[in-house]
Amino acid sequence: MNPVEIIKKKRGGEKLSRFELEFFIKNFLNGKIADYQMSALLMAIYFRGMDDEETTILTEQMLHSGVVVDLSEIPGIKVDKHSTGGVGDKVSLILAPMVAACGVPVPMISGRGLGHTGGTLDKLESIPGFNVNLSLEEYKNVIRAIGLVMIGQTKEIAPADKRMYALRDVTATVESIPLISGSIMSKKLAEGIDALVLDIKTGRGAFMQSFEGSIALANSLVRIGNSMGKKTLGFITAMDEPLGFAVGNWLEVVECVECMNGKNVSDLMEVTYVLGGAMLQLGGKAKSVDEGIFKCKEAIASGKAYKKFLQLVKVQNGDVSFIENVEKYPKSKLEMKVEAANDGFISAIDSLEVGLTAIMLGAGRMKMDDVIDMKAGIMLKKKVGDEVKRRETLATMFTDNISISESAKQRLQNSFTISSSQPKKEKLIKAVVDEKGVREL
Questions:
Q1: What average pLDDT does range 144-154 have in this prediction?
Q2: The one catalytic residue among 80, 89, 161, 199
């Protein structure tokens, strides 16, 4: 086969065969197809798309480019969750130990933050000593020991995805549903899971900002998962304002610790309980999502979820003393309040702008090699629907970068919209997607 002819075929909008995709991925990995040729194919896919069969074949080729972990020796139905990312989306840190505490094994391979969205690995690494770089053997040993493990993508897992994503990132071909689907599902299906729950964000702070785009992505991911023998369920959840109050790595860990100790951060816990209920249903520990939610709430109230989180931190070499006494953590050099300009009600908080402000403070990265300040971030004091008085604190910023404090303050202040009337509260869980299709809630 000729790689140029394959690129030309997709550029013309034709369907690629299994043999063509297999040839292209295999020869890209062994160096016979150059990066610029893969970039050309990615751009052709970006503009011309792929049908369901092509997307599934692409995912299979990316999946089998590396090791597919076998966890069959570990008892139970292994279930993971994947989020498409958002601002303040710290759900995994509560969800994984909560579900594991209910008896469902959770093998989780997560990613880092890039752009305005935070990453689970960065949040975990804000815990002193926490090691996300386990070998696959260590990964198996940890889940065998405590029913839960949280690591980053290893070099053995879907290497085609890692190399293709690096090219997508620099060739403006990230926002393609077939390519996003292949990237997400190749990593998730390589973990050794039996079932998967998806949290597809929609709204201003989401990767897919339109509801229609989020539905299309959810349908693609669910179809791939189910077609490859993994029970897959997706939820469309709102990301117009940040989830919870904390934005920034260590700040988010602290908020999760507080929630596992009984604090009710309503929007964060609503999403966490719904996803957890679904994981328990798929994991055979609940007959319905509602029963699963009830059991998840019990795991939080009894302290079992928090104990499981402490186990995770300890077994992955994190310093548990920082979790048991969060005040020990180093403080930022600058703490600055953002105040309301007038009386009224919070009618919107632009989560994209909040996320970009957090990056200015040092809490995120725009390039993969940017260094994160784990202490930096934003604590919201008000959420959409709350009443405020002039000069009342809307949020507090934390940073060591004193030089950007005034510009960051202005940007954060502008992300709040204050209106004279109280806005209608939007639904947080907007739709559920399964093998039967989409059901709006």
A1: 94
A2: 161
